[in-house]
UniProtKB/TrEMBL annotation:
GO terms for biological process: mRNA splicing, via spliceosome. This is Heterogeneous nuclear ribonucleoprotein A1. Keywords: Repeat, RNA-binding. Residues 218-241 have a biased composition (Gly residues). Residues 88-103, 193-208 have a biased composition (Basic and acidic residues). One of its GO terms (molecular function) is mRNA 3'-UTR binding. It comes from the Eukaryota. The keyword Cell inner membrane does not apply. One of its GO terms (cellular component) is chromosomal region. PROSITE patterns: RRM.
Length: 241
């Protein structure tokens, strides 16, 4: 693990919340080291924490790692400069998913569409476009209306040109649009939801057959991810939607 030097108060400095500064890097080669990961991502900003996750027993790379920057704008810069190639291989960078969100079925899937709930009659497509354009290039806004009354059914879809815009939006649980709270999540197709359900069934079957609790990561309180962040376990299974 590579960390930034601490300041005089014993802390690495005053930073924005970690959920906005942290990246998940999937698809790493088995030989990629913490230092190689840090060297590569340092071109877009100050790295305060960097680790390639390894099996606790064998110490072999698990094929993914985490990079924490000092500012969210540095994550934005890194994501704006994809593709990323490390040790000769194109890797899969994403914004890390906090543990409380990683348990949701859609958390580890990539999608270019955003589902928005809490839509009111006062809302217009332009209001949503103005708000969500802060996160990326909005291609289309669809406020879903009742066919008989023409009134909003309470939800809408926002289409972006990049899955990263959706990932940025869902890191913020609620958005205030024209003075009304709207909640957001990734919009997935029926096929994608069926795939998630199949993966969940397979995971439950494996758990039922295993003996004892599943192995954990490094140290107390560490799950398959890192420092309260999920492991983005399906990173290899889905491209941008």
């Amino acid at each position: 693990m590579v960390k930034a030097e601490e300041n005089g108060n014993g802390a690495a400095g005053d930073f924005e919340p970690e959920q906005f500064r942290k990246m998940f890097i999937g698809g790493l080669t088995s030989s990629t080291t913490d230092e190689a990961l840090k060297d590569y991502y340092s071109q877009w900003g100050e790295i305060v924490d960097c680790v390639v996750m390894r099996d606790p027993a064998t110490k072999r790379s698990r094929g993914f790692g985490f990079v924490s920057y000092s500012k969210q704008s540095e994550v934005d810069a890194a994501m704006a400069n994809r593709p990323h190639i490390i040790d000769g291989k194109t890797v899969d960078p994403k914004r890390a998913v906090p543990r409380d969100q990683s348990q949701k079925s859609e958390a580890n899937m990539s999608s270019k569409r955003l589902y928005v709930s809490g839509v009111r009659e006062e809302h217009t497509e332009d209001m949503f476009k103005d708000h969500f354009s802060k996160y990326g290039n909005v291609l289309k806004v669809e406020i879903i209306a009742d066919k008989s009354t023409g009134k909003p059914r309470g939800f809408a879809f926002i289409s972006f040109d990049d899955y990263d815009a959706v990932d940025k939006c869902v890191l913020i649980k609620s958005h205030m649009v024209h003075n009304y709270r709207c909640d957001v999540k990734k919009a997935l197709s029926k096929e994608e939801m069926a795939k998630i359900q199949q993966q969940e069934r397979e995971r439950m079957d494996r758990g039922a057959r295993s003996r004892g609790p599943p192995p954990v990561g490094r140290g107390s309180g560490w799950g398959p991810g890192r420092g309260g962040f999920g492991g983005n376990g399906n990173w290899g299974g889905s491209g941008p939607g």
